[in-house]
Input
Amino acid sequence: MNSILSLISTSIRLAVPLGYASIAGSISETAGILALGLEGFMMIGAFMGVLGAFYTGNVILGILMAAGAGAIFALIFGFFCIQLKSNQVVAGVGMNIIAEGLVSVLMIAIFGSKGKSELVPSLQKLDIPILKNIPIIKDIFSGYTGLAYFLILVMIIAWIVIYKAPIGIRLRATGINSEVVDSLGLRSGLIKYISVAACGAIAAIGGTFLSLSQLNFYSKDMVAGRGYIALAIFVFAKKNPALCVLISLLFGFTEAIHLRMQKFPISSQFLAMLPYLCTIIVLIVSATNNKKQKLVVK
Amino acid sequence: MSHLLETKNLTKMFGDFTANSNVNFWCDESVVTSLLGENGAGKSTLMKMIYGLYRPDAGEILFDGKKVKFKSPRDAISKGIQMVHQHFMIIDELTVAENIVMGKEPQRMGIYSKTEAQRLVNEISDNYGFMIDPKEKVGNLSVGEKQKVEIIKALYQGAKVLILDEPTAVLTPQETEGLFKVIRRLKADDKSVIIITHKLHETIEIADEIFVLRHGIMSGFINKEDTNVYQLSQMMVDHEPKEFVKEPKAPGKEALSVKNLTYYDKLGAKVLDELNLQVRSGEIYGMAGIEGNGQLEFFEILAGIMKGWSGEIEILNQNIKQKSVKEIIQMGVSCIHSDRTERGLLLDLDVKMNVLLGNQFSTQMQSKYQLLDYKKTAITASEIFEQYQVTPANVDMPLKSFSGGNQQKIIIGREFLRHPRLAIVAHPTRGVDIGVCEIIRENILELKRNGSAVLLITADFDELFQLSDRIGVMFEGKIVTEGRAEEYTPIRLGLYMGGGNEDEK
Amino acid sequence: MKNRKYIHQMGTSLLSIVIAVIIGSIVIGLCGYSPVLAYTALLKGAFGSPALLMTTLEKSIPLIFCGIAAMISFKCGLFNIGIEGQLIMGAITYALIGLKLQWLPMPLHILVCSILAMLAGALWSSIAAILKVTRNANEVVTTVMLNYIAIYFTEFLVAGPFMAEGMIAQSNALDERKMIPFIPGSSKLTWACVIALVFLIVIALFYKYTVTGYNMIATGINFKAAEAGGIRMNSTCILSMALSGAIAGLGGAMLVSATYGRFVLDMSSGYGFDGMAIAVLGQNSAIGVLFSSILFGGLRTGSLYMAMFEGIPSELVSILQGVIILVISAPMLVRYLQVWRKKYE
Output
């Protein structure tokens, strides 16, 4: 019983960064900007969070710095896509390469190491007041760090903004046909910029969950393709933030199994493949109606 | 007394080309103003300047007597100038209410209030007698209903001036009457209505004041009472329109035979309903109908692009059900798609590469070992330039540098120079000026003279009657009436296009 | 007229490099290093001596293959981000089957193993292609996923059943006499460079003169028009991706056969991603790929030199590459700059 509970809680923990990234991607894609840079945003977030915590000694400030850095980085991407009409896939890949290079260089410049940064203060686990005393519930719902609970808030806010707020109509319209939005005298460009910045910030916070919440340092290859996995998640979830979180749980589960089964004789590499295979399967299953509809929206 | 909206000596140039030159125009409350002119005369340029999409190079715009500078549509909209575009500016995936209130959404405590939005929409809608359900997704509406949504939107967003761009292009004669009733109502509500059009009869019927544009210059202003169709036509064009002689030709064998064609789209809707049609060699069959009644799907099925239909289609006595697009082309079929940019052009490539499209596997364009021969392609391209008077005659220029009319000529040249035995042509002269129109229509007639069969799908009644030997009307996926061209009038066609028939009295 | 187009294209690429260098120097400076030192070291390390030049050219070879692979997919409008994985699959195939076939005489050995490596790469990319065509699965995501799967799969092979003697996870070495020899007079550059050039020329001719090549170009420019022009979408896309994967696999084969002699983990070190930057910078033309590959090869050699002698981390070059991709992805940037320049004339 205990191992099932710990499997569930591990799944939840592993799902959190994917949840952030997929919600971030949903927002950006709803506005019509391809979220290919999620991988880079998460990397920037994970690293900048550590950097911030290192310099200020305060982990919350580190997370805020990460969000800011993610937003700025995303805005540069947005500038190229919106103002300069870049090909979004190419620009996205470019941003990811820049992010990886930038982080590597800064790691050497500041921490003097390619692999692992110095240790920094990290988040504390929170014990939710009433829940922590109920036997099974406490293992599933209590004891995570603040960022995990914050994800729920982000999900709710994102959901309200996209579906219930007045600007949600404009946001969705921008992604489908920004010309129509402009013809009403609204600024579709501004909407896109804000969405992209939000995407960068939220994805960056997701990155900090990896470096400041589960651990307390940054290491190379920490993000390991999660940004790309998140793409499959929000496609499958049809850009609905609530579904994003749900499907992230599924992926968290596959990763949890990987960690668990390392004791068994199945080769570890095949288990490592699980999340990536899962992504492909998800894409196969969520085939859209629109023939030849790519992720790129002009 | 100053006009509500006025332009003085407005000029706009694109490079060397003068689109508008010293144009004086105005409109007033409770007046219906028509801006009349042929395609390419400069009407849309003028309106885009009034709407804030273009900045004038010279001249000024006055609103309520005061000079204004519009830097973007936002400025124009803030003054109450609203435009109903020819290609509707609406989002199919959103509801009617959402489309209409976007930008001025009613809210309660930060949350969008669906019920309030619906109430506001209904208020306007009922006022004008529109039967539109605000909760419906716009994508499910008919073309006429979508136009009503656009009008409601303009009113909700605070229109004092409503600019309607070619509003009757997509309507039947009966629906046009309905639109005119709405326009008279708008007039009674003190709105200023500007209609951009090239249709003389409609202008005479609905407009109070008429401005005529010709080659970018205001060739005249006149009140409705003081003029007639003939005079307006003289003001619009400076040469006699070409008379097309339709030679009666004894049609030959069946080139296209469609029997019981049925097609369901991805959502399960029946788009083509046991369609029957025959076109014979040496004959032009003109198909009339409102867009959205299955013409596009019919076209793409004949071209070999869409599959999954049931029934029988024989082209030149060959069953095409299993045939690919390439095989159909090789059988001697040419298609001019209605969306020429999307379906016909490789804009970033040069003329030679575009001429190859559809021709690349014919030995005409190949040298030894089935390799492409660009010399042969260049020769064909030069032939097209000559026969269709394309300028500039440069085979190495990318297609995007050519004007729209020239692009259309190149596509048609490319398709017709194959000497097809069956040509399927959709809206060949949409949006091109009168000179190009004549060349294109002449070439279609030439095809017929040489014995080809031509299926012509068009919304232009002039074109339909000028070219067709037989006419049929497509409504909801079926041919609802068919016969010799002489048997029909626009009114009679309009009746069938709208789904009526003559048995109903 | 045609010459004007080439000059215009080359100008765009050069301009992108210049902008990247400028932006790069800002970033380098922000990281605390001297841009002047960095760039001089890069140039010296890339082209400073005949030996270094040879190393640069040798490093350009897998880049040429990856550049061609990326170019093929881009020209058809597809984004093959999985070149890295396809290269690895080609490499492992060459390394393992090569061991089994060492009884073949040298030229035949290289030929057969290369073909098999190309097949492996083609198969790997075709998975993504088929998924795209049948299930509309976005090829960017699928190819990236396949990258990771390829990395883990090959790791499994050389850490497990095919592991060589000793502690390092790698395959057994091929007999040196079966590897591609060095060109006379050099201890760095192999005949693989000739193979790369041959393929460049073949691909350029393919696009110019064959119907299939034309079909792919048309599909990449406007697939709806291509469809109306009789081109079969599905088979064209799959063929294009397969070809792209095949060339990537060949690149992997060359890595094994000319450089390493065996399969080593991390042997690719980003050649696949560089390939994309190369294709983009070279504006999807064979000549462009050639020059861009040499440039990127130079960046690789130069960056090692820079790290060794100036202590500037070699990863800086990644940033430069990313900026190049970013800058060249923006057609408007060049246009804005041209307009801006005209204002001052």
